[in-house]
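Exam revision sheet. Question 4 asks you to relate a sequence to its structure. Input first:
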Amino acid sequence: MTKDAALALGISQRQVTDLLRAGKLGGEQLQDGTWLVSRRSIGERRALHTGAGRAWSASSSWALLDELSGRAAEGLSQSTYDRMKRRIRTTSAEEIARKVATRTKARRYTADSLARTATDLILTGASAAEVIDRKLTPETRRIEGYVREGHVEEFARRHLLTLDDEGDLTVYEAPESQLWKGRHASSAVIAADLARSVRTRERSAGLTALEDMRQAWLVRHTR
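Answer key, structure tokens:
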């Protein structure tokens, strides 16, 4: 129920409904209009609550992750780029993970074949953990990935996926600006998505990788 979710998250019922409709909180709407909210989704949302201050826009969040990954953030005005640099200098990895968590829409599904569906996704999070930490084994029982093109719903129809808020397949929508090549998202995106995890080891690895990237960026920009 939205009332219980609102109490758990410390926000209003209307805000809960807005998050559900935007795909930023998992749930199912019944025929009478009532929402059933996924407990798993509430737990993840609590772990990544944006905290005090205004949320970062999706475009600013993607640009910051590009910058940390060593990719030039394109199309930014000088004032926007300066603001992004200030954020990197003054914001902890944990706060970065929280602020960028709302940049994309995600849906959970079940699939007839996780492995087959994964071949058509840009892998991220636990599915690409070895990219940022060689000690981590990529998760194959749970798949996380971005659609290569189009919308999440289109991808789901094409692959005959079943919407399931407790499912083992998480599909994220990526903006057109993210032209990834190969099988994996960029390193900062993988780390930020790994930091969404409710599993302590995965979340810790994501935050550690983000902080390492931030420190490497600081070294490059303080000479």
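Marking note for examiners. The first strand starts at residue 27 and ends at 29.
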